[in-house]
Design brief:
The complex is a heterotrimer of chains A (360), B (402) and C (534). By secondary structure, chain B is an alpha/beta fold. Chain B contains 14 helices and 14 strands. In chain B, the strands form two sheets. In chain B, strands 1, 2, 3, 4, 5, 6, 7, 8 and 9 form a nine-stranded mixed β-sheet that branches. In chain B, strands 10, 11, 12, 13 and 14 form a five-stranded mixed β-sheet that branches. In chain B, helix 4 packs across helix 7. In chain C, the strands form three sheets. In chain C, strands 1-2-4-5-3 form a five-stranded antiparallel β-sheet, sandwiched between helices. The two termini of chain C are 42 Å apart. Chains in contact: A-B, A-C, B-C. Chains A and C meet through helix 1, helix 5, helix 6, helix 9 and helix 13 of A and helix 15 of C.
Chain lengths: 360, 402, 534
């Protein structure tokens, strides 16, 4: 009964990390290829990702509740542990940085000020730094409070849009073409590299059952929010127009008009986007720091947090424009299946084989 | 580390002041009119809200004064360059986030408005819920003539009058809906029509003598015979094929389109019955949505629309014992509606060549994906599609049930 | 490991000092601690008399009185001396129950030995024989009379307390409409009695401490032994014992010595002046600390959500409670964020406002020469000044102050064009909102943080406010109250806590104690608490 709540918290933080990028940019990216069948696309992707999660969990079962970085060393020795930890730290940092850049650009559009990107980026990074520095547990606690508010906000937006739904927008049901849909589902993955957090937090969850529960909860939340959100987007905006629509969430909240009062809600996207991204960035930075230091204690990893934060800031300012940042992010996302589930599957398989050999 | 983060926050606080724009230093545009210019392609008219009217001034003791909206007209290559020119005229920063209405003159609308719409849609300034309409004659004149009699603030007038006519399909009055429609390859749209009453300009016209009941008199904005303080009207709609205006629909045709598209709300009609000189007043109610059934056979689309309607008598006029004779009257109504609907659909298929009623949605279900739908080529198939509209008018009476 | 509730009590300093609870089952008798050891009396009456005169500063302090008399024990007249502090003791008691028996009855009854003095003559309920000078000093200063008899082995300490104090009054800061209306007073013993009057159970424990090497302030730690979590009790005692300070007068001071985190605006203990509320907390498995001389007692641990609860919540039917709690949270967030949001909206998010409201804001701001930030800071600071002044001002001129505050500042500032009328509304809603917060400290923290949010809103609009809220919630949920995270039951999530925190059920359905306090006894009432429903 008691550890159940632990898995809920971990599930929430993992889904926060996965959803943050989704809410800022992704529906646009989905719709570009598959048109108004994007919701089917997202649903299928969530299903595939959860099946792969189950497979990884099955591979991981004998090692539970070991931190994934420990299995690195089981599989490939201490050197391997360092190597793979660095791979994860670097890739997560790059994802973080690009997401930060995209959010910053989006905020620039939404708030319509003359403020430079660096200003927004610093404004987001300071709270992220404080949170990452306070430790994983603090961030998890924080997200447990903020997340329900965010979900309520998203649900409010989805419900307030009901007068604008046109069921005809969903047809033809399979989007641009069946081929594109298949390509969208299987080739252009929207990627769940952040699912790996679950395995890094495993020691907190004590046993395999709780880890599994947290993983399934993560995917339940992600699927519910992303599918309902995409469905709402597809229902409101018809296909050819949705192609050149920028910032779907922002535009959707702008379209709400239920009576004279319930309209002009768009500044809430600032709230939803930034808190999602700040939660996910701080948890990724503090996880990266604990991977680098090999310890979950605040004192030991405190040196790494500022370093990673500063690197994230500079990497996020590298792309010359919003377009190039988006392009890079898209490219990286299509390779994100390497981070999860490919790499964990390989490592866990090796670890299993070595373990068996050692037993013999 | 705590001190460091506090320092960082302080630095941000110091560095960030000045990015915001104070509200009193901004000028809020409430209406935009777009005409054809003489020396430049576009003549744009901007109406600015006057916040100082309506009392509650800074001192709190001033007497309420009527706000005088400020109107500025400039000629420029595009609307956005006109905005730039306005910057040199107005001292305050322009803010477009409170625009209520965009008025295109019919001249501009006939040339095509796609560029304007996509410009507005991709700019952050224009809100999706901005109303769009087409003016009979100059948009500039219309905007200057509007004199709200109930509202103190002009923006409220636009909000009120446009929300009465704005719907999803018929009268695509919202900027984004029109934009969505125009972005589709083959589409038709009905956009509300505004205008200045001709009585103000000319003498009362006399060519309405033989068609003066509500079913046959197709009035457009500016054609109502009346005497009122506000010289402007909103009535009827402009028919768009893709992004170009083709024709206008009168008041009753607009209602009919609404009935077919399930966006109708009950209204009263006075109908000449049984003779041309006598009137029956009924309330036409659409309680159930029409059943639209689309099928594709041998590459040809068949669309069947069944519209249930019911009536209530407001004034039975010369129908004696109207409760018994209502069947006869209903049949008359069905016939009239049938005739009008056939005319509308015939116009759509042959002269407008635009699916203004959005009937294609009923056929679209049959196709599995967009490529199949494109292959079917609705643009060509629409003209020779078989469209049957049938009305079923009933007299809802309590006594009948007894 | 992570969120196991028993691990909610994570103590940082357990390894440094250990504390054993040997006498945990001793009940509330006033224990004098062993640390009063030291010099003792030598047995020579004259010498001892002089020593005590010196120790008690007799002659130097005017309120220390000495009375010399003789007692007849056996055949012999023994000279005796009585020390007491004028004002602390009840002289009637001294006359009737010490001097009269010793001077008159001793002769009537023919007491044969010194044992008879204590057993027959002195009818005090609290009576003690000791030779330790430190103890005698403390007792004297705590309202006892100290008596020396020539020939007796030990000195007598006789309880004759009787100083002037306030009686049980109605609560000043926690007024409620329905429910009991008595409050704690400055008397430690009376306060413990008020609690014991409500919890008539032998397992109610009351451990006594003296804090302050000079002031020797008595402090009681109360808990219910078979309900309160043992490690919570142990940790509380450990912290209290380790306090080294010269003097302490009130619970509010002790609070600062006990709290985990000082750099936060969040109060980490609940303080109340209502015995019913303290008793309820005890029965929920919490610990209550009472400090002599302070009408407020400390309840610990507590959470952020409990800070916004009032004592009345337990006496109202559940629909009202839920409504009132929601209103309180709205009021709290208004008082925290509204000025910041106003600044953010007028400088960054003008599209948020309906056009009508926007126009009236513009027209009201047209004649104001300051930007919104300066305008609101002027107004907030003057409001804070009025508020601070209204506490200090004598009651008679209070109404003058409110007239000056309301009329001069409100009306004149608007007509002079220094602030806009809309802003006056915002500032007054904010002020009223902070009064609706039941916890004084929580209201104060909203008052402080409000200025931060005004700055953040002026600098980066909603982004600034979101960033501020993010850090704020982070620091608040990271705070611990006696080892329990303040964010419970939401951060970390506890299974039973979340539903009750969101929606308060009727009293008969509140079957379990708060699981995050992790009490020894989980059930509050039986699952079917209303047997009559069959």
């Amino acid at each position: 009964m008691k550890t159940k709540s632990g898995s809920v918290s971990i599930g929430i933080i993992c889904s926060c990390a996965i959803l943050s990028k989704y809410l800022v940019i992704l529906p646009e990216y989905m719709v570009k290829l598959v048109g108004n069948a994007a919701w089917l696309d997202v649903f299928a992707k969530c299903a595939i990702a959860s099946i792969s999660l189950l497979f990884v969990l099955w591979l991981y079962k004998p090692f539970a509740p070991m931190c994934l970085s420990e299995t690195f060393s089981l599989a490939c020795g201490e050197g391997g542990k360092i190597f793979f930890s660095y791979i994860y730290v670097i890739s997560l940092t790059i994802f973080n940085a690009l997401l930060l850049r995209l959010l910053v650009e989006a905020l620039g559009t939404v708030m319509a000020t003359t403020a430079p990107d660096e200003f927004f980026a610093l404004f987001i990074l300071v709270p992220v730094f404080v949170a990452a520095y306070s430790g994983t547990r603090a961030t998890i606690n924080l997200s447990a409070i903020i997340f329900p508010l965010l979900v309520v906000t998203i649900i409010t937006v989805v419900l307030a849009l009901i007068p604008h739904y046109r069921v005809e927008n969903l047809f033809p049901i399979l989007g641009t073409s069946t081929k594109n849909l298949m390509r969208g589902i299987f080739v252009k993955h929207f990627g769940f590299p952040e699912t790996i957090l679950l395995f890094f937090f495993a020691p907190m969850l004590e046993n395999y059952k709780n880890i599994k529960r947290a993983g399934l909860l993560t995917f339940l939340i992600v699927a519910l929010i992303s599918v309902s959100f995409t469905l709402a987007y597809c229902l409101t905006v018809p296909y050819p127009a949705s192609k050149n629509f920028f910032l779907p969430f922002y535009q959707m909240t702008r379209m709400i008009k239920s009576g004279a009062f319930l309209q002009r809600l768009e500044p809430i996207v600032v709230f939803v986007w930034t808190s999602f991204v700040m939660c996910s960035m701080s948890i990724l930075i503090s996880t990266s720091a604990s991977l680098l230091s090999g310890s979950r204690e605040r004192e030991k990893k405190s040196a790494f947090v500022p370093v990673i934060t500063i690197i994230t800031f500079f990497v996020s300012m590298l792309p010359s424009s919003e377009g190039s940042a988006f392009y890079l992010y898209e490219k990286l996302l299509s390779y994100s299946t390497f981070l999860f589930p490919t790499l964990p599957v390989i490592i866990l398989t090796i670890a299993r084989i070595r373990r068996k050999a050692a037993k013999k | 580390m705590k001190k460091l983060s506090i320092m960082l926050v302080l630095i941000l606080l110091l560095g960030g002041c000045g990015y915001g724009k104070d509200v009193e230093n901004q000028a809020f545009v409430v209406a935009v009119g777009i005409d054809k210019g003489k020396s430049f392609p576009v003549k744009a008219t901007f109406v600015f809200a006057d916040p100082n009217g309506g009392g509650s001034g800074g001192g709190g003791e001033e007497k309420p004064s009527t706000p005088k909206p400020d109107t500025v007209t400039v000629e420029a290559p595009t609307v956005f360059s006109a905005l730039r020119k306005i910057d040199s005229i107005k001292s305050k920063t322009l803010n477009m986030s409170h625009i209520k209405i965009v008025v295109f003159s019919d001249e501009i609308a006939k040339e095509g408005i796609r560029d304007y719409l996509s410009g507005f849609a991709s700019s952050r300034d224009f809100r999706p819920n901005t109303y769009v309409c087409v003016s009979q004659g100059d948009a500039e004149k219309y905007l200057k003539k509007v004199k709200p009699s109930h509202e103190t603030f002009i923006e409220k007038y636009y909000d009120n009058i446009m929300s009465k006519v704005a719907h999803d399909k018929v009268n695509e009055a919202y900027l984004y809906y029109l934009y969505f429609n125009v972005m589709e390859d083959f589409s038709g749209s009905l956009v509300p029509l505004v205008g200045i009453n001709k009585n103000e300009i000319d003498k009362p016209s006399s060519d309405v003598s033989d068609m003066y009941d509500d079913f046959s008199y197709e009035a457009r904005a500016g054609e109502i015979v009346r005497d009122a303080q506000n010289p402007t009207e909103v009535l009827g709609c402009a028919v768009f094929r893709n992004d170009k205006m083709i024709d206008t629909l009168g008041s009753f045709k607009t209602d009919l389109a609404r009935i077919i598209c399930n966006e109708y709300y009950p209204r009263n009609y006075s109908i000449a019955y049984p003779t041309k000189k006598e009137f029956v007043t009924i309330r036409l109610i659409q309680k159930r949505s029409p059943v639209i059934d689309g099928t594709v056979k041998n590459g040809k689309a068949h669309i069947k629309v069944e519209v249930p309607l019911s009536i209530e008598y407001i004034d039975a006029g010369k129908i004696e014992n109207h409760k018994n004779k209502s069947a006869q009257f209903c049949a008359f109504l069905e016939k009239t509606l049938d005739r009008e609907a056939k005319e509308l659909i015939k116009d759509a298929q042959s002269s407008y060549r635009a699916d203004v009623l959005g009937l294609g949605e009923a056929v679209k279900h049959q196709f599995i994906d967009v490529s199949a739908w494109k292959k079917f080529d609705w643009e060509k198939k629409f003209s020779n599609a078989q469209i049957d509209v049938s009305f079923n008018v009933m007299y809802a009476d309590f006594e009948e049930a007894n | 490991m992570y969120m196991k509730l028993k691990d909610l009590f994570i103590y940082k300093y357990t390894s440094r000092e250990t504390f054993s609870i040997e006498n945990a089952d001793e009940s509330s008798s006033f224990q004098v601690q062993k640390n009063h050891g030291g010099p003792t009396l030598c047995g020579n009456f004259k010498k001892d008399c002089n020593t005590l005169c010196e120790e008690f500063s007799f002659g130097k302090s005017g309120d220390v009185k000495k009375r010399e008399f003789t007692v007849q024990i056996g055949e012999k007249e023994h000279s005796a001396v009585l020390f007491f502090i004028d004002g602390l003791v009840n002289k009637q008691l001294i006359n009737d129950f010490i001097l009269k028996p010793l001077m008159l009855k001793s002769r009537e009854l023919n007491i044969s030995s010194f044992r008879g003095v204590g057993e027959i003559l002195l009818s005090q309920s609290e009576y003690k024989e000791t030779n330790v000078i430190g103890e005698l000093c403390f007792d004297l200063n705590f309202g006892s009379a100290i008596m020396l008899i020539d020939g007796a082995k030990k000195a007598y300490s006789l309880d004759v307390k009787g100083w002037q104090h306030r009686g049980v009054d109605s609560p000043q800061t926690e007024r409620i409409i329905r429910g009991p209306n008595d409050a704690f007073s400055e008397q430690l013993r009376e306060n413990t009695a008020l609690i014991r009057h409500l919890i008539r159970n032998k397992s109610l424990m009351c451990r006594e401490y003296k804090i302050g090497t000079i002031s020797q302030t008595p402090v009681s730690v109360m808990y219910i032994e078979n309900v309160a979590n043992a490690s919570l009790v142990k940790e509380t005692m450990r912290r209290i014992e380790s306090i080294k300070v010269d003097y302490i007068f009130a619970a509010a001071e002790l609070e600062q010595f006990l709290e985990d985190k000082s750099v936060t605006t969040l109060p980490q203990f609940l303080s109340t002046e209502r015995p019913d509320r303290a008793s309820r907390a005890l029965l929920d498995g919490r610990v209550v600390i009472i400090v002599d001389g302070s009408p407020f007692v400390l309840i610990l641990p507590t959470s952020i959500f409990e800070l916004n609860e009032s004592a009345e919540d337990n006496y109202l039917r559940y629909p009202y409670v839920n409504m009132i709690r929601a209103i309180r949270w709205i009021a709290f967030f208004l008082s925290l964020l509204l000025p910041g949001l106003y600044v953010a909206v007028v400088s960054f998010h003008t599209e948020l406002l309906p056009t009508g409201i926007l126009m009236s804001i513009i027209s009201s701001r047209e004649q104001v020469p300051f930007p919104p930030l300066i305008e609101i800071i002027i107004m907030e600071i003057s409001l804070e000044i009025i508020r601070e002044a209204s506490i200090r001002v004598p009651e008679a001129s209070g109404s003058t102050l409110s007239i000056v505050g309301a009329l001069i500042l409100g009306q004149a500032a608007v007509s002079a064009g220094i602030v806009s009328p809309i802003l006056i509304i915002i500032v007054s809603i904010t002020a009223i909102g902070s009064f609706a917060t039941p916890n004084y400290y929580l209201g104060l923290s909203a008052r402080i943080l409000r200025f931060l949010y005004i700055f953040l809103g002026a600098v980066a609009g909603f982004l600034g406010i979101v960033a501020g809220l993010f850090v704020n919630i982070l620091l608040w949920t990271d705070t611990k109250s006696m080892g329990m995270p303040m964010g419970v039951p939401f951060a970390p999530i506890t299974k039973k806590g979340v539903p009750t925190a969101l929606f308060v059920p009727p009293v008969w359905k509140q079957n379990e104690r708060d699981d995050y306090v992790n009490p020894k006894r989980k059930e509050r009432q039986s699952f079917i608490s209303r047997k009559w429903r069959g």
